[in-house]
Amino acid sequence: MLAKWSKLQASRGHETHPELAHRRAQQTSRRRNERKHAATSSFPGFNELSPRSLYFEECTAANILPEPLLSRITADRRLELSHFGLGDTKAIVLSKSLALMPDIQALNLTANRLTHAGIATVVQHLSGRVELHSLNLSENEIGEAGCASMADFIFSAPNLTHLDLSQTKLVDSFESLANEIAIHPHLLSVNLTNNEIGDGGGQLLGATLAAATCTIQDLNLSWNQICHSGATAIGHALQTNRSVQHLNLSMNRFGDDGGHQIAAALLVNTTLRTMDLTRNNLTGSTAVTLSYAIEHNPKAKLYNMVLVDNPLGCTGTKALLRSVARGCRCNVRLSFYDGEDANKAATVRRVFDSSFPAAQSPYELHLHTSPYDYVIACEVVAAAVARRCELFDVSFEPATDEVDLEHHAKKHAVQQPLEFSDQVQGLVEKGSTKLFHLRRRGILRISARYVPWRIQLTNDVTPDGLRNVIKIIRDRISTREMCSMLEVATTDLFLHIRDVDLFVNGLLGSIDVVDVVARTLPCIVDGTQTLPFLLRHLSFSDQNRLMSSHGVQVLQFNPLNPTGKWTLDMCDRIHRKLAVWFSMINRDEAAESARRVAYRGNTSQRGTYANFRNEKFNGKAIELTDRFFDGLPAKGILEFDYVSTRRPEDNVENGAPTPVLLEVEVNALLQTIGAELWSEYVPQHKRYDLKRQVVLLQHALSGLYITAEHVRMLMQYFPKSIDNLRLKAVFAAHRSILDMENFEGVYEKLLPGDRKAMFSALGYMNTLNPLNVDMEYDLPMADADNRLLVRTLVDMISNDPLDLIKLDDQSIKEGLSIYSMFSIASIPTSGRLGLRYITRPNKFSRELIESRQSTFHAFLFAGRLHEKYRGVDHAEEGAGAS
């Protein structure tokens, strides 16, 4: 064809312009007559031009170079003309041939420099083509002027199923087009990406989706500057729409206002399968609402949701990952950049965290206008059901119409008092058992207090859910992001050892094993499995790396052996989880101590049965109670000593055995943790190994029982002059010592400074043997346990007046007298008291026991003392009788 065209042009090169114009006019007239005759002829097939010849003739008439465009039609009748740069003139010429081409099922005119003029002509000639199923006009310029032509075409193309108008500058004035899309009977896929339709266009499309006649299944609205009004309209429409299966709203900027409405739609929508919300400035509040929606819609078919490049923050990311871990069928793709919460903390309201429902208490929740508030109400009640908080000051104010608000003051609104019922497992009307349903119009006011969680496995996660969480983490790009996401995902998980192994094995190769273990170690509930877990996954050198990169505290913690000195950085999410762990352990042990108060004394520092001692926050002394955890600070340094009050004899009372390790077993245990006997000098490069060994000792002794003599033996493996290692070994062994009546043989091997630190950290009432109290005491009298100790020592000298309590000079100068302290009310409650207890010399064992047996109950191991020395009394009585 090109050769023919060249010869024709060469033969006509001698013609003048008037002659050429005259000849063209004759040709045009002749062709029109031929077409008219062909239209009226009984044999039109022999007279009208073929589409290819017509295209050639039209190009000749328009004086443009013809291109082999029509030859690009495929076997399945698809005409692919994308990126040809045709322009309006060639498109108009081509359109006449398109009208004659039979059975065009798909036409692609992407990126052809077309404007509304060229497009209007093309679609005009395509009108009425029942075989046309797909039309792609993307990357051209339809504009506002071309919308009417497109609307007419859609109306006249009854079988059109796929329409691509992406990047065609529709702006927001395409109401006629939106109306035709809404009523078209067969349209399945519409692509309107990158058209800057804005909020107005979003509202138009919301109306389109809300129409009962809408048949669209795949809708792409990305890059359209849809703000909250448009997204809100689309969200409302999705609540009733039953056709859309794939929705792309990425690269808009509707934020949380629109995000909440879309999440509300997911709570009831049953047709959506995939949704892309990439980069829409969605924060943690929307993530919380979305997580609730995808988890609590049993009829949902959504299997893929993309939330990449949204500032979801720690709380929002955790909520989504927790829903996935619970077995949610929806695969979530998201990204998390550490530091988002810190950067926005000053300007953004804190996001609701179901792990700490009391953090933002009290709440005023508008149930009928805010999906986020509705989710908060549901999650707070769920937290109360799970006993993670307790609810109080609950009331409901029914919604009032705007007309009524003009005539009635807000103060006259009816307040319906409510309360939480354990029996009903929900909110009820006060004084009844009638369940209160949260799906109501009105305002719910509710307050919550933190309650330490029960120590138990997280029972709502599934292995498949955890595998999906691992997949989401592995899909991220950077190691830092994966580590941060793993940290967030495991924040409130308490797992069986096999599930923790699942994380380590699943992420091996993607993240350094040290980073994986550091973040999953606090998830282990069964402390007896911690040491095997560490030895299975980390070498000794890896454990040293873990301590240096994440801190000793992370490697040291064991829920079955928590005694020790602790310093936690509240900026560190792992440390925050450890703080929650301690609140749980303390609640459990304090309740047990209160239950056993008839058998042993209240040895807590403040008389509250709590096992926290010497607490400080940012260097300031505090009392660590549940109220501290209501809004656990996001920053600051928390320091405290913790002494576990679980005793081996408690197991005897519960009917459980208390097997004591043999010496050979203790030696094997020390060999397992790599301990070596050292003299006083230890090379510098070996000292870090000693720190690791004393930390592993904490895990090795969890759930086991040893004697004081065993402790003396293992102390020899830790030089007393290096980094308080022997003191730390004593802390690690304290809970496991069966014969605490022999404990003085242990602390005698400590340096004087370490001994004083031990009594301060553990408390005298948790360590002293009442038969061996001869020592010097320096007691802060603000502590209840020290006042109890003074009272107990005074009772001892009351039972044996020849015993002596001698006050130090400073206490005497302050006017204190031990003989004025026989009444509990006369014991000072502030300042300090220094004294020395001196037992009468040459006192027989039986006399000592008889004089102090009445004070046994004040000490932690009172049951052990009563059991042991009851046998001694009987033996001495039998010897005297014989």
From TrEMBL:
Residues 1-44 are annotated as: Disordered. Residues 12-22 have a biased composition (Basic and acidic residues). Residues 23-35 have a biased composition (Basic residues). This is Uncharacterized protein. It comes from Aphanomyces astaci (Crayfish plague agent). The lineage of its organism: Eukaryota, Sar, Stramenopiles, Oomycota, Saprolegniomycetes.
